[in-house]
Write a structure and sequence with these properties.
Number of helices: 12
Radius of gyration: 21 Å
Helix content: over 70%
Strand order of the largest sheet: 1-2
CATH architecture of the largest domain: Up-down Bundle
Number of domains: 2
Shape: elongated
Number of strands: 2
Strand content: under 5%
Low-confidence stretches: 1-24, 93-101
Largest sheet: 2 strands, antiparallel
Order of helices and strands: HHHEEHHHHHHHHH
Structural class: mainly alpha
């Protein structure tokens, strides 16, 4: 019998409900892919407006309901922004990376970063959220989602060792957010995106300490690959376990590094034995 995900929702009951809505989910995914193709083909830039709903639905050959669902899906991923009474627009790059939900958190970011326990608080939140997003991503990922996860993983691996900590952290965060997007749970995704600044800063701090050593880089890379493989293989238990194992490893490794640094600091204060 399968376990209960971190959200506390029975996966069997939820999955049964998913099957009932699978046809609509697949349709909205297809329309979302059409919209992405339209944006590429017409070379629409951030701030450009999409055609009005009725002609756009006719152009794509879909119902207005399916079009609305697809627009909502892309808006949740930060690719589009819908303005009440004002149409739908291609989002600015900053909006893609950071949704408005995180704005109330921004004044507190310096306070969080000044707290030595801040990293571990964020890791605890990530443990709860990412286990759930990995679980649902394994059940719901579309072919397009899987392609984005693979691309994000390759980008993350290619970013390592280029002496660009910010770029590495952003690539790492993008990989975790790609899995969150594949969960197709708008609440989980919005919370993850809302925590993007905290997430990216947390990852940057972790990478700075952990990825400089081959002893930690290799297992961390293997953990990321296991997360990806769990999602791509459609195995929710494997995906969730991989997410939890990865974050527990990061937590334990950071604690160990902090303890070692504290011991070295204490040792440096000891009086010299010479004389």
């Amino acid at each position: 019998m399968r376990g209960i995900p971190a959200t506390g929702i029975d996966p069997i009951a939820r999955h049964a409900g998913d099957n009932g809505a699978m046809k609509n989910e697949r349709l909205s995914d297809k329309v979302a892919a059409q919209l992405r193709g339209l944006i590429r083909e017409q070379n629409l830039q951030p701030g450009d407006r999409l055609p009005a709903e009725r002609p756009l639905a006719v152009q794509l050959g879909v119902s207005r309901t399916a079009l609305r669902e697809a627009i909502a899906q892309l808006a949740s991923q930060g690719l589009l922004s819908a303005r009440v009474g004002g149409g739908t627009y291609v989002s600015e790059p900053a909006a893609r990376a950071r949704q408005t939900i995180d704005e109330p958190l921004m004044p507190y970011l310096p306070l969080f970063q000044g707290d030595p326990e801040y990293r571990f608080d964020v890791l605890e939140i990530r443990h709860a959220l990412e286990g759930a997003t990995a679980w649902h991503a394994a059940l719901r990922a579309t072919d397009e989602d899987r392609a984005r996860i693979r691309e994000a993983f390759d980008t993350m691996m290619a970013a390592h060792g280029k002496d660009d900590p910010a770029g590495e952290a952003q690539a790492d965060a993008a990989f975790h957010l790609a899995i969150a997007e594949a969960s197709h749970n708008l609440v989980l995704l919005q919370v993850m995106r809302g925590l993007f600044e905290l997430l990216q800063t947390n990852i940057s701090q972790s990478r700075e300490k952990l990825y400089t050593s081959a002893r930690t880089f290799e297992p961390l890379s293997a953990q990321h690959r296991e997360m990806m493989d769990g999602v791509l293989s459609g195995d929710p238990e494997r995906a969730r376990a991989a997410a939890h194992a990865h974050l527990e490893f990061v937590h334990t490794s950071l604690r160990t590094l902090d303890d070692n640094e504290a011991r070295r600091t204490r040792a440096s204060r000891l009086p010299s034995s010479h004389g």
